[in-house]
C-alpha cells in the first residue's frame, strides 16, 4: 500500500525544486519531472509557492545584515510587533510614530493620525497603550479623565491597550462601541465590507452604541472574531472562535507581510492593491481561481507575481504600473 507523503516530505521536495530553479532554467526533462511531481498531490503547488516566496524574500533581505534569520522572516510565529519588524518595513514609520506621540501629548483631544498607501505607523499613546495603523488608515484620539476614546474613521488598526480600571478604552467604529480595560485587538473598516473585529488577547465588549447604555453587549475573548452587522441584522451577530495560527496569519501585516492560506490568486491581488500603486491583473479566469499559500512582502507585488508565474506555469508581463499574469501559450498539437 502506498504511503501518503507528509507535509514535511512535500516541503523538503519543494525546497529542492526551488533550489534547482534558482540555479538556472530547468532542462526539458527536469521541467517535465517537475510538472509530473506537481500533479501528484494537490498540496505540492502550495509547498512550491511557499519555497519560491522564501527564496525571493531571502534574496531581497540580504541587506538586513548578519542578524537576518530567513526562517523567522518567512514564518512569523510572534503575536506581537517587534521593533525590528517596523524598521525593516519602513524606517519612516518609526519617525512618524515619534511625531505621533508628541502630537498626542500636546493635544490629546481630537488628535487625528493617518497613514498613506503602503505606510504602517506605530502610534504610542500617552497612557502606555499603542495603536498600529495599517495602510491607508485614519483615527481620531480623544482622552479625558473618564475615558480613553479612539474613533476608527477608515482602514485597519491594531490596539494594544494598557490596563486602567478607572478609565475604559473605547474604540468607536460606525457608531458602535468596543470597550476594554486591557486587551490586544484588531479592527478593520474597509469600503464595501463589514467591520471586522479580531481579539488576540484579553476581553473586548461590543455594544450597539458607543456610549454603552442600555442594550445587548457581546463579550469577545482571545482568539475570537466578529463581523459587525448593520442594525437590521445585528441580532444575528455571533462571535466565532478562530485558531491561534489564523490570528497570526491575519496579523502578518504588522511585519509588512501578507499571509495566504488557500485564498484565490484574484483575492491575493486585491490584498496587494491596498499596499502599492503597482496592480496585479490576472487575465485568465482559471488562473485567477487558483489557490495560493505562502507569506509575501506586502510591498513587493512584482516578486509575488514572479513566484506565481513559476509555480503555475504562467506568463508575467509588465505594463507600466501593472503586473499582468496569464497562462503561458500552449504549443499547437502535432498533426497525426
Task: Give structural notes.
- With 336 residues, the protein is of the alpha+beta class.
- It folds into two domains: 21-75 and 253-327, 3-Layer(bab) Sandwich (Phage tail protein beta-alpha-beta fold); 83-247, Jelly Rolls, CATH 2.60.120.1440.
- The protein has ten helices and 18 strands.
- The strands form three sheets. Strands 1, 2, 3, 4, 5, 6, 7, 8, 9, 10, 11, 12 and 13 form a 13-stranded mixed β-sheet that branches. A three-stranded mixed β-sheet has the order 15-18-17.
- Strand 6 and strand 7 (176-180) form a beta hairpin.
- Helix 5 crosses helix 6.
- The longest helix is centred in the first third of the chain and has 18 residues, at 43-60.
- The protein is elongated and about 70 Å long.
- The model is unreliable at 58-109 (pLDDT under 50).
